[in-house]
Amino acid sequence: MNRTDHQNGEAAATIGALATPALLLDKDRLDRNLARLSSRMAEQGVVLRPHMKTAKSIDVAQRAYPSGAGPITVSTLAEAEYFAQHGFRDITYAVGLAPHTAARAMRLRKAGVDLKVLLDSPEQARMVGAAGRAAGVIPSAFIEIDCDGHRGGLTADDPKLIAVGVALGEAGVKLAGILTHAGESYSLFTPEALIAAAENERAAAVAAAKALRATGHECPVVSVGSTPTAHFAEDLTGVTEMRAGVYMFFDLVMHGVGVCTTDDIAISVLATVIGKKPEKGWILVDAGWMALSRDRGTAAQPVDQGYGLVCDVAGKIYPDLIVSQASQEHGIVAIRPGSAHALPNLPIGAKVRILPNHACATASQHESYSVVSADSDAIEAQWPRMRGW
Amino acid sequence: MNRTDHQNGEAAATIGALATPALLLDKDRLDRNLARLSSRMAEQGVVLRPHMKTAKSIDVAQRAYPSGAGPITVSTLAEAEYFAQHGFRDITYAVGLAPHTAARAMRLRKAGVDLKVLLDSPEQARMVGAAGRAAGVIPSAFIEIDCDGHRGGLTADDPKLIAVGVALGEAGVKLAGILTHAGESYSLFTPEALIAAAENERAAAVAAAKALRATGHECPVVSVGSTPTAHFAEDLTGVTEMRAGVYMFFDLVMHGVGVCTTDDIAISVLATVIGKKPEKGWILVDAGWMALSRDRGTAAQPVDQGYGLVCDVAGKIYPDLIVSQASQEHGIVAIRPGSAHALPNLPIGAKVRILPNHACATASQHESYSVVSADSDAIEAQWPRMRGW
């Protein structure tokens, strides 16, 4: 259901008329962010396979691919099905496989979608092989490589890597290639460390592909990616494909990492002042964790942004004004401790925009994007989001 | 969309057949939790006005009121509209008022719903008065009292309290009464402190009502509430109404506070093992923060439960097994640091249940409840949840 329809019977025409809390998407910033990484990858001769887990929107995907569907990455099979319904045919499902997802993935493959799955064990290889036979298709799978201890996958020198390659062959599964994700890069915040993380990711991926090829396995795709390493990689020799998702919107965590400025952050939560506690230096707004998410990703960074950084309704940041606490439908806005800035004088009913810590988490709290441009208060469109699994 | 329909074309009949991640609701535990607080309030002669912000489900509300709609509390006007559509007529919207919500609330009142709003300033009194006149209804408003510095409201001895009462009268708004919420009780964890917090909440509410009555304002309702204080209050003299929401489901935060046992927690997230890292002591499951929420409410408690406590598929807790880290669609399950317990041997495809930190936040990540009973693996029903604002 469209939220503005829900409230008013028709879509709000301006930011000022929008019911709050609402998720705003600045399409000029989105376009700039999309162009920045696609030119960077084009220069390096690497395919960009955007991760749709952040946006979960066909309208955003079409903004990334204005002249027709291209390769994408997804985090759920519901995303795969949604984007397939909208014409995307080259999809990598980048979460480890279980029996029920293997069967469901093969149904999509049977329907003509080149859906590739991810695994890191011989038992998963046998599982997807069986699912492929049951569906009457030849599965295609990536072997997950662990480049930094972040999550799943095998290290490039793990003998199990070759065993998985062998098991795939025996199970009748095509080896799509290897895939790795430098998830630990999110905790860095100097260019030197980010460049090193990108090189480490590349080196692990290339070493794994080399080990597989040395034992007779074709390994066509060498896929790496995280938004920080995608933007800081200086050399991608041997890499064929880059995955990233949050780069489309960016957020305060990515700003803390050093990948973007606050002016690049394309989404914000529009909120309304609903109370004041001047004796405590508090302004209460109607965006709590239900609208902002519980994500506190900047808490571990040099600058803790609370639950978000507060801007005026046009998007200009109030210096050091953050959402310092959040309950379900209330945000407490206050000046950052130690700052010399004063609390702005905002009356009940005033609107503010809040830049989020983590775009993936904040966007997932909303049904749709209210699309705006940089220099206008018009709501140009409502772009729905999909959800679920 | 019903998730099981989405995947299979028909609802899964058993827990084992359910696609994961999925939100399970044990209706026997729900019924027991509902009965516990309603008997307690009946004994004390206090009206229970359940807060629907946790469940957001007409099926759960009907479980609380099996013989017909009763009084409820809501956190959004979308909830008010949803429950009104399902026959609820006595609704308190317990979030501070803004101009757009005042107008929308009065539309519901015009439609015959006894919707009461909340405010703490003369300007909000004038705002709702104007909205009432515009809609052709007499508004009814609670004055919010601050009993513990948690969020909004006026202290009982604040002279502005009487000024708001006067402003309501001048604006043609009926004073419904006073309303307070002991939100700081969530950070306590001894019976003595909880009993004291409940008494503090009662005393502040009664003092505010007394101050209003002493200056000629009728103050029919004295409304207090939080799940911890509702269960620990020893004396509710002068209180007419109790509000609580999370008591229906309970969660690990409430367990840490000491209000419930883990056997009372009625919701859990069903997840599947999708990977293993034995050398790190990790099991990877397909429930990350998208399924569990980013809530880390137990981090500040004596026992940190990570992103949740892991049980077998029947609901039996694995001692000291927690979701230690979460990314969007991955949970890392590990034994709590310092524990002597061993990691259980769970194969790829095995299912587990995860008890959540915070029921409100975890439930809001899901479209529906898969309803189960204590001693059966049958899915008895799918109860949809509403969302948005």
From TrEMBL, chains A, B:
Domain D-serine dehydratase-like: 266-373
GO MF entry, a single one: alanine racemase activity
Keywords, comma-separated and alphabetical: Isomerase, Lyase
Entry keyword tRNA processing: no
SMART domains membership: D-ser_dehydrat
Broad enzyme group: isomerase
Enzyme Commission code(s) on record: 5.1.1.1
One family name in Pfam for this protein: Ala_racemase_N
Membership in a protein family: Belongs to the DSD1 family.
Protein name per its UniProtKB record: Alanine racemase
Organism field: Bradyrhizobium vignae
Lineage per the UniProt record: Bacteria, Pseudomonadati, Pseudomonadota, Alphaproteobacteria, Hyphomicrobiales
